[in-house]
Amino acid sequence: MNKILVAYTTNAGSTEDVARAIAEELGKDGAQVEVRRLEEVTDLEPYAAAAVGGPMILGWHRKAVEFLKKNQAALSQKKVALFMTAMALTDTGERQFEGIPLSLDPGLALAPKNGSRLSLKENYARASSYLSPVLKAAPKVRPVSIAFFGGKLQMYTLNIFQALFVMLVVQAKPGDRRNWPFIREWAARLRVELQEKETA
After folding, report:
1. pTM to 2 decimals?
2. Where are the extended beta strands (E) located within 56-195?
3. CA 148, CA 88: separation in Å to the nearest integer?
4. How far apart (Å, rounded) are the C-alpha atoms in residues 147 and 82?
5. What does each of the 200 residues of the chain score in pLDDT, given as a tens digit?
6. Which of 150, 170, 146 is nearest to 86 (CA)?
């Protein structure tokens, strides 16, 4: 398999840890994998595939969305996967979005209190609510998989607007919700899928 890029942005470093774990799994069959911050990526030509990730902060991190939008022509010619770290996710049974397979960390994705009427927080934290603006920003990019992972929240790393949003809307509690076995399982499945598509 040709070279794979794992590109990420991060707010306080926890998404970088996730990106490196994904890269380790993707490289287990001998594939050449590079881990880079989004702003360090200037040329996508060397890569056959890319996994692009970032945290959810007032939506998916703006640098991740901008990266997809700016590079959508190149990414549309490659196999792409997206991963997002979050502190809240409402499980409404969504396992696909616009035909794209979704992987939701079972420890992060919680069923709504009332399935027939979602609260403001629950509605905001649906996978489709998170993904709709992302895919709309770069419609040429069709990911082969999208994963939602638990993140790590430390309030002191947020600016005042982010902190208020987290407290009032998301109502997330500080802590580390990263589920390393789930992250690595997703990356292992992605590795197999990329190999299958490479030989197809």
Report:
1. 0.87
2. 79-86, 89-90, 96-97, 100-104, 109-110, 145-150, 152-153, 175-176
3. 10
4. 6
5. 579 999 999 877 789 999 999 999 999 988 899 999 999 999 999 999 999 999 987 789 999 999 999 999 999 999 999 999 988 889 999 899 999 999 999 988 889 988 789 988 888 889 999 999 999 999 999 999 999 999 876 555 555 555 555 555 555 666 677 999 999 999 999 999 888 755 44
6. 150
- Strand positions, DSSP E, 1-99: 4-8, 33-37, 49-55, 79-86, 89-90, 96-97
Report residue 98 as tokens.
């616009």
Is there a contact between 124 and 170 (Cβ–Cβ < 8 Å)?
yes
d(CA 115, CA 107): 19
Q: 50, 8 in Cβ contact below 8 A?
A: no
Q: How far is CA 98 from CA 40, 128, 151, 162, 167, in A?
A: 30, 9, 25, 29, 31
Our CA angle for 88, 166, 187, nearest 5°, is 35
Lookup: tokens for 120? 């403001």
Write phi, then psi, for 81 (nearest 5 degrees).
-125, 150
The architecture in CATH of the region 4-199 reads 3-Layer(aba) Sandwich (3.40)
User: What are the sequence ranges of the domains in the chain?
Assistant: 4-199
The tokens describing 192, both together, are: 């197999």
